[in-house]
Amino acid sequence: MGKERVAVVGIGQTHHQATRGDVSIAGLVREAAVEALDDAGMTWADIDAVVIGKAPDFFEGVMMPELYLADALGAVGKPMLRVHTAGSVGGSTALVAASLVQAGIHRRILTVAFEKQSESEAMWALTLPIPFSPPLVAGAGGYFAPHIRAYMRRSGAPEHIGVLVALKDRQNALKNPKAHLHEEGITFESVNDSMMLWDPLRYSETCPSSDGACAMVLTDEAGGDAATDPAWMLGGAMRSEPTMAPGRDPVNPRGGRDCAADVYAQAGITDPRRDIDVAEVYVPFSWYEPMWLENLGFAEEGKGWTLVEDGATRMDGDIPWNPSGGVLSSNPIGASGMIRFAEAALQVRGRAGEHQIDGARVALGHAYGGGSQFFAMWAVGADKPAS
Amino acid sequence: MRDVAVVAFAQSHHVRREQARNEVEMVMPVLHEVKASLGIDQSQIDFTCSGSTDYLAGSAFSFVMTLDGVGAAPPVSESHVEMDGAWALYEAWVKIQTGAADTALVYAYGKSSPGTLRDVLSRQLDPYYVAPLWPDSVGLAALQARACIDAGVTTVEEMAAIAARSRRAAADNRFAQLQGSDDPAVLLKEPEIAAPLRRHDCPPVTDGAAAIVLAAGDRARELTASPAWIRGIDHRIEAHSLGVRDLASSPSTALAAARAGVADGPVDVAEIHAPFTHQEVLVRQALGLGDGVSVNPSGGPLAANPMIAAGLIRIGEAAGCVARGDAERAVAHATSGPCLQQNLVCVLEGGQQ
């Protein structure tokens, strides 16, 4: 049986900042949702259902906050779903919302993801106390640094690759008014000289902690046909695997490869570097760009870093990655995955402003979470898919 | 819509305190049992979806560890809701409707014993204006019970009768935590703990888990001789602020029931997720059930109320009634949030469709 086609017709984002002390949690999500509705030319009454996602509830200290947000998001009397799949949640939330349209159950979905990290201390919230286990890591960087070391050893990548990624993404963010970090005058030296946090990760190679929200309005085919510049969903998938399992490779996890293969098959993508025009990929620490270039099939195993060194992923390269500035420039954790999905859609709609990649027709949005074990991805296009 | 059925259901023996087992150890036997009952393993599951909440586990990303109970190697297509498992089942049902899956594993668990549940649940409330006052879940339910009594919806006598009927029914449910009850007249001699609620009006605090396998069409018929077909499923949410709600009715249940088609045929059995006695009356009215309907033959949440799993268990119990032939048509209900804020309704039928 054929799935109903899905179109993105509205996109909204907050101005991401370290602390959005000017708004409540409800005010934050509404800022993104209202912008998405305005973009779609819709009002709250046009929405059939609301799908919301965020990372752990402890980040704001509110248990199942969607209950409290039902009024603010116009969900009263409607179905409301709350997704949580760790760092991939922003992407998973969009995919659950899309599935409601694909299944023919609803025609117009508002999907929202957020995090208001200033309400707590995310680094310690991400330092999980495992009963009966010695506390070996502090923050997500402490968890991922050994995986990055393993990648460097395997691939022989030179030490400065991470600095190049951070410099590129932070420079891209200067073209994105919504980005959290706007580091005018950033240089290779300033990144390279920043404090070493989790060797080999420097302070400037690490994502910030942000308050922010992202929202999208998804519609069925008729809604997409009626819109002036829809982004069409070409494929979407999720994959999960255990944190630890015999034979599991956390550097190049099979879950990520399987998820990408599923999306590419749905979207008719056979050579991602050639067939995809721009990608928004979840890179919270600089080295995840070369690692995910390989995991997602843009480069051979062990060669991802050469694309970085050659400038292929810069805005003027042949396969730009994260023209928005990416997670390295804005990281409201629960929203970060949806921001990737939304930025991919903005690109194929030609609506990315100063960070627009000219002629982008096919874009990839990617999110991952947990110990590199939860993956959510979608491909979107400017043209309506044949099926 | 594709025909989708509940083809297997398993649950833990619900207890006040699972002291020796963590969440993974509590969930894993249930997951193994539900798959073994069909003679399948994880490789034959197309989609997996779970429900849990970090606030019970006291740990961020608590669902990450319970994924170890699934056997997600090689990687699986999987999702998770921070909601009752009934909503995880809804997400899985949607996934099957897209055609991307023919089978789905749904599970949920709640281990409430490490904390003080009634206080933990107060963290669900508006964080700016209500949660700082720490109104607990029993106190809020008492406000609702008072509103219901004042509105003539129920009486303390009817509430005591519901408690006695539920826990007596649970005598036949080997998974229940509380079994048997004194007569209502005896129950009513007990003191109020949060007026007008007495101890018998409140659910037990429970540790437990449950799992369901869904399958579509022919796959369902291959897996079992007695699939319980989902004929309708819908869920709706109400406003959060108690001050803007009529606590003596459940409009979101009524709306979900209308969308799920409860009134399209006679209902033999209803499994209602009403943790407090007065809430059963509200939900029964919102579902439009007549007097002839058998309500909560399992004992319901008054006999075992594992948070996050109790709604999913209602669907499993209703499906069990259909599969055993105890009911031709059954309704399952799940709730979430303070005073029945969010509600899901699912209609199940036997037969060979």
Highlighted features:
heterodimer, A: 387 residues, alpha/beta, Peroxisomal Thiolase, Chain A, domain 1, 9-stranded mixed β-sheet, two-stranded antiparallel sheet, globular, B: 353 residues, 10-stranded mixed β-sheet, 12 strands, 33% helix
Describe how the helices and strands are arranged.
The complex is a heterodimer of chains A (387) and B (353).
Chain A: E1 7-13, H1 25-40, E2 49-53, H2 66-69, E3 80-83, H3 89-102, E4 108-116, H4 122-125, H5 139-155, H6 161-173, H7 188-192, E5 196-198, E6 201-202, E7 211-219, H8 221-226, E8 231-240, H9 254-267, H10 272-275, E9 278-280, H11 288-295, H12 304-309, H13 333-349, E10 362-369, E11 374-381
Parallel strand pairs in A: 2-3, 2-4, 9-10
Antiparallel strand pairs in A: 1-7, 1-8, 4-7, 5-6, 8-11, 10-11
Helix pairs in contact in A: 3-13
Chain B: E1 4-11, H1 23-36, E2 47-51, H2 54-57, H3 62-66, E3 78-81, H4 85-97, E4 103-111, H5 117-120, H6 137-150, H7 156-169, H8 184-187, E5 192-194, E6 197-198, E7 207-216, H9 217-223, E8 228-237, H10 251-260, E9 269-271, H11 277-287, E10 294-295, H12 310-324, E11 329-336, E12 342-349
Helix pairs in contact in B: 4-12, 7-11, 10-11
Descriptive notes:
The complex is a heterodimer of chains A (387) and B (353). Chain A is α/β, with parallel strands linked by helices and 387 residues long. Chain A has a domain of 132 residues: Thiolase/Chalcone synthase (Peroxisomal Thiolase, Chain A, domain 1). Chain A is built from 13 helices and eleven strands. Chain A is globular, with a radius of gyration of 19 Å. With 353 residues, chain B is an alpha/beta fold. Chain B folds into two domains: 136 residues, Thiolase/Chalcone synthase (Peroxisomal Thiolase, Chain A, domain 1, 3-Layer(aba) Sandwich); 208 residues, Peroxisomal Thiolase, Chain A, domain 1 (3-Layer(aba) Sandwich). Helix content of chain B is 33%, strand content 20%. Chain B has a ten-stranded mixed β-sheet with strand order 3-2-4-7-1-8-12-11-9-10, with helices on both faces. A two-stranded antiparallel sheet of chain B has the order 5-6. Chain B starts with a strand and ends with a strand. At the A-B interface, helix 2, strand 3, helix 3, strand 8 and helix 9 of A face helix 3, strand 3, helix 4, strand 8 and helix 10 of B.
